[in-house]
Amino acid sequence: MAAGSTTAEKSGANKPKGSSERPSRTGTRNLRFRVPAPRVLLVVLGVVALVAGGIWALYGSTWFRVERVKTSGTRILTPGEVEGVAAVPVGSPLVSVDIDAIEARLRRELPRIDSVDVERSWPHGIGLKVTERKPVLLLEKGGKLIEVDANGVRFATVDTAPRGVPRLVLDAASSPSLRRFDADRLLREAVRVRGELPGEIAENTRVVRVTSYDSVTLELAKGRTVFWGSGEHGPAKARVLTALMKASPKAGHFDVSAPTAPAASGS
After folding, report:
1. Are residues 147 and 124 in the same domain?
2. Domain limits for position 192
3. What is the pairing mode between strands 225-229 and 215-220?
4. Which of 137, 201, 222, 226 is the most exposed place for a label (fewest CB within 10 A)?
5. Which of 146, 210, 207 lies closest to 178 in space, CA to CA?
6. What is the DSSP string of 192-214?
7. What tens digit of pLDDT does each residue of 224-252 get?
8. From CA 128, how far away is CA 134, in angstroms rounded?
9. pLDDT digits over 86-104, tens only?
10. pTM of the prediction?
Protein backbone atom coordinates (compact mmCIF):
# COMPACT_ATOMS: atom_id res chain seq x y z
CA MET A 1 0.00 0.00 0.00
CA ALA A 2 1.41 3.38 -1.07
CA ALA A 3 2.20 5.83 1.62
CA GLY A 4 -0.36 8.62 1.93
CA SER A 5 0.56 12.07 0.71
CA THR A 6 1.55 14.60 3.32
CA THR A 7 -0.41 17.74 4.20
CA ALA A 8 2.27 19.90 2.64
CA GLU A 9 2.07 17.92 -0.59
CA LYS A 10 -1.71 18.26 -0.67
CA SER A 11 -1.43 21.97 -0.11
CA GLY A 12 1.14 22.28 -2.83
CA ALA A 13 -0.88 20.21 -5.18
CA ASN A 14 -3.78 22.62 -4.98
CA LYS A 15 -1.65 25.66 -5.97
CA PRO A 16 -1.28 26.45 -9.64
CA LYS A 17 2.21 26.69 -10.97
CA GLY A 18 3.76 30.13 -10.75
CA SER A 19 1.34 31.28 -8.10
CA SER A 20 2.58 33.79 -5.47
CA GLU A 21 1.47 34.99 -2.07
CA ARG A 22 2.10 38.71 -2.97
CA PRO A 23 -0.83 40.85 -4.19
CA SER A 24 -0.82 41.63 -7.86
CA ARG A 25 0.40 44.99 -9.21
CA THR A 26 -3.00 45.70 -10.64
CA GLY A 27 -4.55 45.46 -7.21
CA THR A 28 -1.98 47.89 -5.79
CA ARG A 29 -2.74 50.46 -8.49
CA ASN A 30 -6.45 50.19 -7.79
CA LEU A 31 -5.82 50.95 -4.12
CA ARG A 32 -3.75 54.05 -4.99
CA PHE A 33 -6.18 55.54 -7.50
CA ARG A 34 -9.55 55.04 -5.98
CA VAL A 35 -12.34 57.22 -7.25
CA PRO A 36 -13.22 59.88 -4.57
CA ALA A 37 -16.23 59.11 -2.54
CA PRO A 38 -19.44 61.03 -3.40
CA ARG A 39 -19.24 62.90 -0.08
CA VAL A 40 -15.83 64.37 -0.97
CA LEU A 41 -17.09 65.48 -4.36
CA LEU A 42 -20.02 67.23 -2.73
CA VAL A 43 -17.69 69.13 -0.37
CA VAL A 44 -15.46 70.27 -3.25
CA LEU A 45 -18.43 71.40 -5.30
CA GLY A 46 -19.81 73.26 -2.29
CA VAL A 47 -16.57 75.19 -1.77
CA VAL A 48 -16.41 76.13 -5.46
CA ALA A 49 -20.00 77.30 -5.39
CA LEU A 50 -19.38 79.34 -2.24
CA VAL A 51 -16.35 81.12 -3.74
CA ALA A 52 -18.15 81.80 -7.00
CA GLY A 53 -21.15 83.12 -5.12
CA GLY A 54 -18.97 85.44 -3.03
CA ILE A 55 -17.28 86.86 -6.12
CA TRP A 56 -20.64 87.42 -7.78
CA ALA A 57 -22.04 89.08 -4.66
CA LEU A 58 -19.09 91.52 -4.44
CA TYR A 59 -18.75 92.36 -8.13
CA GLY A 60 -21.90 91.32 -9.96
CA SER A 61 -24.80 91.89 -7.60
CA THR A 62 -26.34 95.16 -6.39
CA TRP A 63 -25.88 94.19 -2.74
CA PHE A 64 -22.49 95.90 -2.21
CA ARG A 65 -22.44 98.93 -4.48
CA VAL A 66 -21.56 102.52 -3.65
CA GLU A 67 -24.71 104.51 -2.92
CA ARG A 68 -23.51 107.32 -0.65
CA VAL A 69 -20.38 109.33 0.29
CA LYS A 70 -20.01 110.93 3.73
CA THR A 71 -17.40 113.61 4.51
CA SER A 72 -16.32 114.59 8.02
CA GLY A 73 -13.66 116.81 9.61
CA THR A 74 -13.92 119.83 7.29
CA ARG A 75 -13.61 123.36 8.74
CA ILE A 76 -12.95 125.72 5.84
CA LEU A 77 -13.57 123.34 2.97
CA THR A 78 -17.15 122.20 2.37
CA PRO A 79 -18.19 118.54 2.02
CA GLY A 80 -19.29 119.37 -1.51
CA GLU A 81 -15.81 120.59 -2.47
CA VAL A 82 -14.17 117.49 -1.03
CA GLU A 83 -16.60 115.05 -2.62
CA GLY A 84 -16.39 116.80 -5.97
CA VAL A 85 -12.60 116.31 -6.09
CA ALA A 86 -12.81 112.80 -4.64
CA ALA A 87 -15.03 111.73 -7.57
CA VAL A 88 -16.09 108.48 -5.88
CA PRO A 89 -17.66 106.22 -8.56
CA VAL A 90 -21.21 105.92 -7.22
CA GLY A 91 -22.86 102.75 -8.48
CA SER A 92 -19.61 100.81 -8.73
CA PRO A 93 -18.86 97.71 -6.65
CA LEU A 94 -17.69 98.89 -3.25
CA VAL A 95 -14.79 96.44 -3.24
CA SER A 96 -13.40 97.86 -6.50
CA VAL A 97 -13.10 101.51 -5.36
CA ASP A 98 -9.45 102.65 -5.59
CA ILE A 99 -8.99 104.19 -2.14
CA ASP A 100 -5.33 105.12 -2.65
CA ALA A 101 -6.12 107.02 -5.85
CA ILE A 102 -8.86 109.02 -4.14
CA GLU A 103 -6.55 109.98 -1.25
CA ALA A 104 -3.78 111.06 -3.63
CA ARG A 105 -6.18 113.12 -5.74
CA LEU A 106 -7.60 114.95 -2.72
CA ARG A 107 -4.17 115.87 -1.33
CA ARG A 108 -2.93 116.95 -4.76
CA GLU A 109 -5.88 119.14 -5.74
CA LEU A 110 -6.82 120.49 -2.31
CA PRO A 111 -3.58 121.65 -0.61
CA ARG A 112 -5.58 122.71 2.45
CA ILE A 113 -5.97 119.01 3.25
CA ASP A 114 -3.19 117.78 5.52
CA SER A 115 -4.38 114.18 5.60
CA VAL A 116 -7.43 112.19 4.57
CA ASP A 117 -8.62 108.67 5.31
CA VAL A 118 -10.85 107.04 2.71
CA GLU A 119 -12.76 104.11 4.19
CA ARG A 120 -15.28 101.61 2.92
CA SER A 121 -18.48 101.62 4.98
CA TRP A 122 -20.21 98.35 4.17
CA PRO A 123 -22.52 97.65 2.50
CA HIS A 124 -23.06 100.87 0.50
CA GLY A 125 -20.89 103.76 1.69
CA ILE A 126 -17.54 105.52 1.36
CA GLY A 127 -16.30 107.71 4.22
CA LEU A 128 -13.89 110.65 3.76
CA LYS A 129 -12.25 111.72 7.05
CA VAL A 130 -10.45 114.99 6.40
CA THR A 131 -7.85 116.80 8.51
CA GLU A 132 -7.22 120.34 7.29
CA ARG A 133 -4.02 122.28 7.71
CA LYS A 134 -4.10 125.04 10.33
CA PRO A 135 -2.37 128.36 9.63
CA VAL A 136 0.20 129.55 12.17
CA LEU A 137 1.54 132.49 10.12
CA LEU A 138 0.35 134.67 7.24
CA LEU A 139 2.78 135.73 4.53
CA GLU A 140 1.65 138.83 2.62
CA LYS A 141 2.26 138.87 -1.11
CA GLY A 142 0.63 141.00 -3.78
CA GLY A 143 -2.11 142.20 -1.49
CA LYS A 144 -3.05 138.63 -0.63
CA LEU A 145 -2.35 136.60 2.48
CA ILE A 146 -0.75 133.19 2.12
CA GLU A 147 -1.46 130.76 4.95
CA VAL A 148 1.54 128.84 6.30
CA ASP A 149 1.12 125.74 8.49
CA ALA A 150 3.22 124.37 11.35
CA ASN A 151 5.46 122.52 8.88
CA GLY A 152 6.22 125.65 6.86
CA VAL A 153 3.91 124.61 4.01
CA ARG A 154 2.23 127.45 2.11
CA PHE A 155 -1.15 125.95 1.41
CA ALA A 156 -3.81 128.58 0.70
CA THR A 157 -4.36 132.22 -0.27
CA VAL A 158 -7.03 134.22 1.57
CA ASP A 159 -8.32 137.79 1.47
CA THR A 160 -9.01 138.11 5.19
CA ALA A 161 -6.64 137.17 8.00
CA PRO A 162 -7.91 134.38 10.24
CA ARG A 163 -8.32 135.49 13.82
CA GLY A 164 -5.28 135.04 16.04
CA VAL A 165 -2.82 134.27 13.24
CA PRO A 166 0.14 136.73 13.10
CA ARG A 167 1.67 138.09 9.93
CA LEU A 168 5.14 137.04 8.89
CA VAL A 169 7.43 139.73 7.53
CA LEU A 170 10.56 138.43 5.79
CA ASP A 171 12.79 141.49 5.64
CA ALA A 172 16.09 139.78 4.94
CA ALA A 173 16.84 141.00 1.42
CA SER A 174 20.04 142.74 2.52
CA SER A 175 21.04 140.20 5.14
CA PRO A 176 24.34 138.32 4.67
CA SER A 177 22.62 135.25 6.14
CA LEU A 178 20.75 134.76 2.83
CA ARG A 179 23.99 133.35 1.43
CA ARG A 180 23.60 130.39 3.83
CA PHE A 181 19.86 130.41 4.61
CA ASP A 182 17.37 131.00 1.82
CA ALA A 183 13.89 132.47 2.27
CA ASP A 184 12.29 129.05 2.80
CA ARG A 185 14.74 128.26 5.61
CA LEU A 186 14.03 131.61 7.26
CA LEU A 187 10.31 130.94 6.95
CA ARG A 188 10.73 127.60 8.72
CA GLU A 189 12.68 129.34 11.50
CA ALA A 190 9.84 131.82 11.95
CA VAL A 191 7.36 128.93 12.14
CA ARG A 192 9.58 127.26 14.70
CA VAL A 193 9.64 130.38 16.88
CA ARG A 194 5.87 130.79 16.56
CA GLY A 195 5.31 127.22 17.68
CA GLU A 196 7.41 127.64 20.84
CA LEU A 197 5.71 130.79 22.14
CA PRO A 198 3.77 130.42 25.41
CA GLY A 199 -0.01 130.47 24.97
CA GLU A 200 -0.82 134.02 26.14
CA ILE A 201 2.16 135.53 24.33
CA ALA A 202 1.27 133.65 21.16
CA GLU A 203 -2.26 135.06 21.31
CA ASN A 204 -0.90 138.60 21.63
CA THR A 205 1.66 138.29 18.82
CA ARG A 206 0.69 140.37 15.80
CA VAL A 207 3.83 140.19 13.64
CA VAL A 208 6.84 137.89 13.40
CA ARG A 209 9.61 139.84 11.71
CA VAL A 210 12.69 138.07 10.34
CA THR A 211 15.66 140.16 9.18
CA SER A 212 18.25 137.35 9.34
CA TYR A 213 18.70 133.85 10.72
CA ASP A 214 19.85 135.32 14.05
CA SER A 215 17.33 138.14 14.19
CA VAL A 216 13.68 137.31 14.84
CA THR A 217 11.53 139.98 16.47
CA LEU A 218 7.99 139.62 17.78
CA GLU A 219 5.61 142.56 17.65
CA LEU A 220 2.93 142.18 20.32
CA ALA A 221 -0.29 143.98 21.10
CA LYS A 222 -0.08 147.40 22.76
CA GLY A 223 3.17 148.22 20.94
CA ARG A 224 5.40 145.85 22.89
CA THR A 225 8.27 144.01 21.15
CA VAL A 226 10.39 140.96 21.90
CA PHE A 227 13.82 140.39 20.40
CA TRP A 228 14.00 136.61 20.14
CA GLY A 229 17.25 136.27 18.24
CA SER A 230 17.66 132.92 16.45
CA GLY A 231 15.28 130.02 16.70
CA GLU A 232 17.67 128.11 18.94
CA HIS A 233 16.91 127.41 22.61
CA GLY A 234 13.25 128.19 22.06
CA PRO A 235 11.79 126.45 25.16
CA ALA A 236 14.30 128.21 27.43
CA LYS A 237 13.53 131.58 25.84
CA ALA A 238 9.81 130.99 26.26
CA ARG A 239 10.20 130.31 29.99
CA VAL A 240 12.46 133.31 30.50
CA LEU A 241 10.13 135.61 28.55
CA THR A 242 7.12 134.54 30.62
CA ALA A 243 8.98 135.28 33.87
CA LEU A 244 10.39 138.55 32.54
CA MET A 245 7.00 139.88 31.48
CA LYS A 246 5.56 139.07 34.91
CA ALA A 247 8.47 140.79 36.65
CA SER A 248 8.30 143.88 34.38
CA PRO A 249 4.65 144.23 33.36
CA LYS A 250 5.08 147.85 32.24
CA ALA A 251 8.12 147.25 30.04
CA GLY A 252 7.74 147.81 26.32
CA HIS A 253 10.72 145.86 25.00
CA PHE A 254 12.08 142.47 25.99
CA ASP A 255 15.28 140.78 24.88
CA VAL A 256 15.62 137.01 25.33
CA SER A 257 18.13 136.39 22.54
CA ALA A 258 20.54 135.24 25.27
CA PRO A 259 18.20 133.46 27.70
CA THR A 260 20.84 133.42 30.43
CA ALA A 261 21.00 137.22 30.33
CA PRO A 262 17.52 138.55 29.46
CA ALA A 263 16.63 142.22 29.57
CA ALA A 264 13.53 144.41 29.72
CA SER A 265 13.36 148.13 28.97
CA GLY A 266 11.00 151.00 28.13
CA SER A 267 7.49 151.59 29.38
Report:
1. no
2. 137-262
3. antiparallel
4. 222
5. 210
6. HHHHTS-HHHHHHEEEEEEEETT
7. 999 999 999 999 999 999 999 999 999 99
8. 19
9. 999 999 999 999 999 999 9
10. 0.74
